[in-house]
Amino acid sequence: MGSSRYSPNRCDTSRGFTLVDVIVSVSIVGLMVALLLPAVQKAREAARSVECKNNIKQLALACHNHHDVHGFFPSGGWGWYWVGDADRGFGKDQPGGWIFNLLPYFEQYTLYGQSSDGNPDVLTRTQRGGAASVIRTPLSIINCPSRRPNTVFTMSANEGGSHGYFNSVTPRVAGRSDYAINSGHMYSEWPHRALGQGPKSYTEARVWSANHYWGGESLQVALGQPVMTGISFERSNVSIIQVDDGLSQTYLLGEKHVPIQHYETGRDKGDNETWCTGFNNDNYRCTGRVVGGQVVESTPLSDWVHDADDFNGRFGTPHPSGWNAAFSDGSVHTVALTIDWQVHRDRGNRQDGRALADSP
């Protein structure tokens, strides 16, 4: 019987990995990940920017559908203590803002109807509770995916009727918008608090109308010039024919500036309420700001900027590629953050007579 003996000439093919082999392999994998990660992140951001522009396009189309039905772009409502009331139509008597007025035009009929009690002049429990339900509803069409998730956020400040909205129960959380409509080249809300909050009741609103107390009327008389020159603002009813400088040269809506550290805190004064309020800087932005009686620079900002003057009244963006905006003809463009401040200012004014030949 034979025996198996070790032969020094036999090759051992079962040799395993050495520590050096493992270290080299891990290093190569790490290097490949480091090289690929920026490309992956860039591709994801490009996809998110496309989704954002698609949201803006759908909102622009809804604005034009609204115009086709009512003869004007969505009205801007009354003030920051008011939300939408479906019983009060789509014009000057509607206290809710532009997004609320668009609900039926991007297929949110049921949500729009939740704020109705069938009575346009009396605030019932049904209406106030239904309005609160609308406030608590986040909408994907007004959410920029590069900025924050489509969910509700804490209501950090509201001191209206009984420390809440005048025509709604005030919930603790609310949906918010990442987009704002163009209110003109001067104001994104009224600088005077009494005007900014609006009247305190439907009865008082009739008194305001009879006596021209509304900001758009009283300030225009005081300054002797149009102060609301955009597409939507307090009690607006701007029609296409009133966009004197041309639809393709006048902003309709776009991304609003929100400092990155306040995406979810609600501590930014331009992002502390909800998407369905009336005229105020949560949902309206302007292309200039008034300093010493003069309109000065107010260009769009990157969300990484948080210390610019009047930053919560400006348009802005989380995208490194630029600010996404719709013009009044419905076209959507990415505008460079380096845009000349006067060009940007004039694109917010529908009637200054300075039509611009350059492309967005």
Descriptive account of the structure:
It is a single chain. The chain contains eight helices and eleven strands. It has 360 residues and is α+β, with helices and mostly antiparallel strands. The chain has one domain. A hairpin with a 4-residue loop joins β10 (323-327) and β11 (332-335). The longest helix is centred in the N-terminal third of the chain and has 52 residues, at 19-70.
pLDDT under 50 segments (min length 5)?
1-6
- Total number of helical segments? 8
Biggest sheet character: 5 strands, mixed
What is the overall pLDDT average? 89
Helical content stands at 25-40%
- Could you give the order of strands across the largest sheet? 5-3-4-10-11
Rg, alpha carbons: 27 Å
Order of helical and strand elements: HHHHEEEHHHEEEEEEEEH
Shape: globular
Beginning-to-end CA distance, first to last residue: 94 Å
Tell how many strands the DSSP assignment holds: 11
Question: What structural class do you assign from the helix and strand content?
Answer: alpha+beta
* Domains (count): 1
Beta content: 5-15%
